Amino acid sequence: MQIQGHFELQFEAVREAFAALFDDPQERGAALCVQVGGETVLDLWAGTADKDGSEVWHSDTIANLFSCTKTFTAVTALQLVGEGKLNLDEPVARLWPEFAANGKQSVTLRQLLCHQAGLPAIREILPAEALYDWQTMTSVLAAEEPWWTPGQGHGYAAITYGWLVGEMIRRADGRGPGESIAARISRPLGLDFHVGLADEEFHRVAHIARGKGNTGDESAQRLLQTTMREPASMTARAFTNPPSIMTSTNKPEWRRMQQPAANGHGNARSLAGFYSGLLDGSLLDGDLLNELTREHSIGQDKTLLTQTRFGLGCMLDQPAVPNATFGLGAKSFGHPGAGGSVGFADPERDVAFGFVTNTLGPYVLMDPRAQRLVRELGECLQ
């Protein structure tokens, strides 16, 4: 497999580990970018980007990064907090009156951001096309009854997070959440990252497909079994209602929409650049960065059925939990995306990391492919 891009010699072992991913015949395409102290030390890509495996992954190939998007959304919301347009601890319903329905009158933006609001799923079965209708989804969520008492425990809002936080951004900033993210993060930092992709960029998007035959670890199997066997459960509803959630990623209407929980499109460079921007103070001041990265939620996740630890819209490291550690310092923060992509920062080593793949693995939190790369990186940094 020909590995494209460049790397500094100190990090040759990471390049070798990246090349070794392609020993697996199922691995289609991937990219890796690592910045240390704001300087790019690895920027690699390889494999194929299209459905048939005939088109190579290019320097400017982008992919759906799924939940890696959530931290971009949280940072945008925190910028609005810094400007006084949003308030973490005010009721959501002050800005969004309809949201007060069904006992949600005191739910705060902070609770939305750290997955404590009790709204990871929708009970009423929705048609597939509802996924692409912002008004439908925000109205349904405004009317929804929480699945638990808000503030008492947490459950990952895999996709509803995008409408909940996105609607707050829209009301506070006067434009779509994807437009806010572009204006506040992508353009200022020069990142090739989009929430709501223009049609003329579609030719650059890698086709996403699942790997076959790998059932993942225990928590992946538990999540799958619950989703299959208990279709009315909160966990199942979170991933299958609307039913198009799991099948939409390669569709034009998914790429076009601004769903800031899960449909950000970008590359490894944009993930590393984003986390460098958090480390160097370009995106948030120290107090707001501290809010983003301090522990808000920890313990058994009511949605994912595994232990999670969150700040505000970012996942915090759990060094002792194999599927929930980024693999560098214990103060690392970031976000994995479904199937294996991940972006994170390790403030202790001033490292920003981005890994993108179009071969989806089955894991719930961290993918072992990214963890292997990080292990090698840690060795090189010693």
TrEMBL record:
Its EC number is 3.1.1.-. Coiled coil: none annotated. It is an enzyme of class 3 (hydrolase). Gene3D superfamilies: DD-peptidase/beta-lactamase superfamily. SUPFAM superfamilies: beta-lactamase/transpeptidase-like. One of its GO terms (molecular function) is hydrolase activity. Keywords: Hydrolase. Residues 18-373 form the Beta-lactamase-related domain. The keyword Hydrolase applies. Signal peptide: none annotated. This is Esterase EstB. The lineage of its organism: Bacteria, Pseudomonadati, Pseudomonadota, Gammaproteobacteria, Pseudomonadales.
